[in-house]
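Revision sheet: structure tokens.
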Amino acid sequence: MPKEGRFSRAIPAAAYLRRNPCIMDLMGLLADQLGFFSPHDLPGLAMAVLFSAALAVLVARVAGATVVEARHLALWAAVAALGVALVKGSVPFSIALVALALLVRPEAAEGQRHRVLKALAVVVGGGCGTGAAIPVVVGLIPLALIARWALRDAREVR
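Predicted:
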């Protein structure tokens, strides 16, 4: 049994983690999936996605856009905010995101719904591929709610 130091008595979790290395391996795996983010950056990521959508709706409505157009712009703004938040600390991911965007460029026959969902899939796939799965999940929580709201059928809008 390993000798406990003065810090492990003050923090019982330290002694527990030292005796259970599989917990440390799990914590290392989770830390690897943060990419270049720290846990303190995650609430800011979610706030950036929400603020971008809210500001897009505000500007669209002031400019005279219909409710449906404002919703679609909010979704595009949220997808862009997630993408930019993921690339701001990684030059290789920014280059890869440009390459992915060129590979899946929109076709003329695609509708607005299909285009924005394809862009969302590119951002999510690229973010998870770079090892930043946890920030992607945190960004997708508000983004999924915005997408559900923005892509409702136009007949439901009053």
